[in-house]
Predict the 3D structure of the following.
Amino acid sequence: MDLHQTYPALSDLRARARRRLPPFVWDYLDSATGSEATKHRNRSALDQIGFEPSILHGPFSPDLTAPLLGHDFPLPVGIAPVGMSGLIWERAELHLAQAAAHAGLPFCLSTVASRSPEDLAPHLGNHPWFQLYPPKDEGIRKDMLARARDAGFTGLILTVDVPVASRRERQTRSGLTSPPRLTPRLLAQVAMHPAWAWAMKGERDIHMRTLDKYSDLQANLPPTEHIGYLLRTSPDWDYLRWLRDHWQGHLIVKGVLKGADAARIEAEGADAIWVSNHAGRQFDAAPATISALPGVRAATSLPVLFDSGIEGGLDILRAMALGADFVFLGRGFHYALAALGPAGPAHLIDILTRDMAANMGQLGARDLKSLPPPFLLDAPVKM
Ligand SMILES: Cc1cc2nc3c(=O)[nH]c(=O)nc-3n(C[C@H](O)[C@H](O)[C@H](O)COP(=O)(O)O)c2cc1C
């Protein structure tokens, strides 16, 4: 079957994922916090970024390669860290790591993933990064860094936009607990979604395996207060300095929206800045990431990574034209997995590749350094 005939866009994968996932799993993946205005703002702000198409530029094959942190990548796309991916599809982290390795793209493993660095070590490609939710305890901190390094992770991502747990009301309403407990209501949902139930038949115990070593807490906490929150702290600038001193690989700070923060993070010795609002899952009055990007770009000479709301190749070009060096997707890769199983992530990479190439053809851009200047669509007409 030609997947491009049936699922030509990420929206097709999302629609199929929604049909196949029980609502409590769907809500975990798809929800944001509050009224979810920030999530929608990410999308509507991206839609406002326009380009003038080019004409009469003759035929060419665009070059999609992008340099980042000393490597040339075939595409400026990576897989963002997502906690508890294993709830969304069986062995999700393994499939994602393998898809990234196969495509030569970065893969990020969350501290609160359902697989540990050790589980993933045999499946990692050349660009695995470990995302750190910062443990309070210095001993645990050192141990996690050593485990990530020994498993082969070359980059460390410090996520800074979760100073406290967010409320994620839709997720709470869905009835999901941590660790997931199948109540009669959730079991009824599972029964109505046989594709997910069948895929998950071998997954008996979905939990945050990286943290097993540090706690045997079995409390049935509400969904936004899992064991990850019990171990972690809200990091400060001293914490960032400590990490810089103790991690020899690339250090990336994720969740930055202000230029002044980016400049200070650069001064502290980080290697890259990641513009993100966590897909609107943390704070419902945050700016759209595409609106925050130019200010961050102007404030730092470090590579700028970007996420939150990317749905296709055109969005990637919008972010690159506004100063991003690389783009990540979180939910998209999980929609792909839930829609098509292990074949999904590779198909999404293919969709993004084709979509970037088609739009670069419209723009007459032979490579990612030659994108024309973007402008705001629907801006008032100047007379
Ligand atoms: C279900 C879910 C879980 C997430 N878990 C984490 C996490 O553990 N650590 C982290 O830094 N970001 C986490 N994120 C945020 C993603 O890394 C990324 O910033 C976001 O998903 C990008 O937006 P997108 O989903 O629109 O592509 C999570 C996002 C989702 C949707």
In short: The chain has a mean pLDDT of 95.
